[in-house]
Amino acid sequence: MTLKNNKFIITYGLDNKENEVIDKISNSKNFSSHKIIEKSMAGMKLKDIIDESTNIIKAVKIPDEKIILFNNLTESELSSSMKEIKSGFLTSPIFAVVTQTSVEWTFDYLINHLMQEREWFKKQQQQKKK
Question: How far is CA 95 from CA 53, 58, 68, 81, in A?
């Protein structure tokens, strides 16, 4: 599986206002329309979500988190998009980039992996302060 070369943003758990911020960024940078992951899609592989597969997957329970995934953005586009998102959101979401590895994971597995990474980084920051 190769990643789609289209530049776009994938979101989960955002409210309407936050999704509007993502749409504005996508439009201003000429990205493809942003994709919104619904809870019912949690058991799907990321590649199927990207390909807009209509496979029916059994429902999987996932945490209420705000997730923003970036597909095929340059470093500059990624940096500026993250900066704009942070300024337009009240709470900071979890950011990640779609990779050759993560594209094969189910979304519920990915979200749990991202939450574990976030906790690891928080612990590292706390240890540095000591």
Answer: 23, 26, 5, 11
